[in-house]
Amino acid sequence: GAGVSQSPSNKVTEKGKDVELRCDPISGHTALYWYRQSLGQGLEFLIYFQGNSAPDKSGLPSDRFSAERTGGSVSTLTIQRTQQEDSAVYLCASSYYNEQFFGPGTRLTVL
Amino acid sequence: GQQLNQSPQSMFIQEGEDVSMNCTSSSIFNTWLWYKQDPGEGPVLLIALYKAGELTSNGRLTAQFGITRKDSFLNISASIPSDVGIYFCVVREGNQFYFGTGTSLTVIP
Q: What are the b/e assignments for A76-100, b being 16+ CB within 10 Å?
């Protein structure tokens, strides 16, 4: 079945580099969420897209983080000038009504 | 964000035992959800609760939406090794989903 996919599955980068993480939501789902999960922790909300509305960016931790969603489908989360504290698993979810469907996540390691 | 207190933080049980975990909040929510996260995967919805007092089962899982709308519990009966993972309670407020800190379950064969 066509679930939520994310790429890459793992990303190792050097401090100060920029990274792009991609999310392909389930076709027809108008809502898309990005979360960050540090080791052994719960999910921290980052950003939410709903259709053509302006995104809810209230969870982005700094201006180094940005995200866009093209054509109401694929989304890219960009982290500029990465820091070691950005190391985490970044999860994307698409939603229809009350259920969120999560991708497998991208594990980001900043050296 | 909203504060969800989930307990216990971790559990180590023998295969076949029953499990109970709960989640409380200081605010009222009209939707409570329980998710499970397997290692290396994203969370997957187990049970959704939409009505105060509602008791819902899904196989060996049973969850209840507290009458005050400020709490919920999840029970797992006759645990098996594949129940291992992290269980999250989640509440919905508008378009936002807020996750509890999770209960890590280990099942010893």
A: ebebeebeeebbbbbbbbbbeeeeb
Q: Say which of A40, A48, A99 has its CB closest to residue B95.
A: A48
CB distance from B54 to chain A under 8 Å?
no
Is-contact B55 B73, C-beta < 8 A? no
Handedness of CA A98, B26, A90, B96 (dihedral sign): positive
Q: Is B1's pLDDT higher than 60?
A: no
pLDDT digits over A45-85, tens only?
999 999 888 899 999 999 999 999 988 789 999 999 999 99
Report chain A residues whose CB lies below 8 A from the CB of B42: 4, 91, 93, 102-105
